[in-house]
Amino acid sequence: MDENKTQNDHSQHWSNPTPAGLVALAVACFCFFALLTGSVDASAMPLLACFLLGGFVIQFVVALLDLKTNNLSGGNTYLYFSVFFMLVSGLEMLLKYYEPGLDARIDGWAWTALALVVLLWTPAFFKSPAILFELIVVLNFAIISIAIHDFGIVSAGFSNVLAHIAAYALLICGLLGIYLSAALVVNGTFGKEIFPNPGPFYTKLQNRKKN
Question: Which residues form a coiled coil (predicted)?
Answer without folding.
Answer: none
